[in-house]
Structure prediction request, 516 residues.
Amino acid sequence: MRPIETRYARSGDVRIAYQVVGQGSFDLVFVPGFISNLDLHWEDEGYSRLLKRLSAFSRLILFDKRGTGLSDRVDAHYLPSLETRMDDVRAVMDATGSGRAALLGASEGAPMAMLFAATYPERTRALVLYGGYAHFHKWVMPPERLDAFIEMAETAWGTGATLPHFAPGRVDDSRFATWWGRFERLSASPTAAAALARMNAGTDVRGVLAAISAPTLLIHRRNDARVDPDASRFLAKKIPNARLVVIPGRDHPIWTGDVDRVAGLIEEFLTGERAVAEAERVLAALLATRIYDTARLGDRMWSERSQRFQETWRLLVGRHGGRSAGTHGELMMSLDAPARAIRCAAALRDAAQKIGVATAQGAHVGEIELRGPPAGLTGRVTLQLAAHAGSGDILASRLVADLATGSGLHFTDAGRIALDELDEPLALVHATSEQHLEPACRPKARMTEPAALTARESEVVSLIADGKSNAVIAAELRLSEHTVKRHVANILLKLDLPSRAAAAAFSARHAGPDGP
Prediction:
């Protein structure tokens, strides 16, 4: 992609960096959140996807707020008011020749967008607020949590330490976590980040909401990790004729999660027409392979076996007609049929066992980009299935089994799991490549039987019975604490138990001589 030209607008004594992308019939000004960096945005798959979607139907105007990214920094001892920062939007619009525009305010950018719409109604075509709020301390974090956040920013900024506060669902995504660390470093210094946090803490635009006359769309994720969804419910009541759409998900940044759904809502609201499905998106079966418990092998042995497995993996992917892509920790491929994906998974599992490597695999079906690595919502769900699978397991979505009917493959019920970005819990099956005499799908195991749990969940419930906390379990199993929490939630759901204590008692009741 051709590099986007960055220019500078003057707002008082401060220079604001901006970019213009697209040639749509109307202008759309994107007011970013806490931190931003115009150049770095294009390096992340989700962020670049969002910007490409928005610029396909508008002339998209992007900028870094003062204090962030490529724009001038602010004096930490003399923090500018929200009114001053809001006027940076006007300066950028003037510099780009935009007399009237729609505004997209994301997170901390939402109050700026609301204030602009109330101050310059004649220049505001429409207003879209994603994950927004009117009062920081009420809906984002109280003063004591803010102090802790600022202390963390001043001591661990640039390491990706803030990621759990914004996108806990991406903590286990090593590539995204690495990018986030760069995003912190290149968007603000530790001092600037602390100053930005203090500026945002003073946000209170509740008094201007009734003055907003522009058509307004509110979008908020149901379990938003940073901004309480009640913040958008409040805005929906106070902004005249505003419409609120709540979507699944927990990760806060607008460029994470189901980006296409967010972009589609914005496009339909601003143009009056639904987004046209792209021809370059195809339905495919995805298979993710995770190497299981490498620590026990030792560095030298693992290096030798890993190389052999990688070669075998590439050979089998090609033999089954797949397209491969590494994902930093997991191996992923796309295939044109669910049955082929399961047969490939079984071949990989058997080959890995001969090499002395244990694997866990996840399979799912959904839309992916025809070009580039398998990614998006379908890719993230597939990776989460691989993360939930136990050693030697092939864990697939029920859709895979439904589409592989008549293939001779064998599937057994594996319950349901709740995933952040899906509206409903996802039905799962365990898959094998051999046809047995029993029915294609066994009846559901009774909720009170340990057989309902995966191998990983059985490990977790055993450690719960030992009185260990989620943090200790995470360290012992080499998982993130967030992943352990998901396992605990699924255990309680499957066993129909009310608490961790009940799960511990259950484990003790079903423990054999050598443990559960």
Remarks:
- The first strand starts at residue 7 and ends at 11.
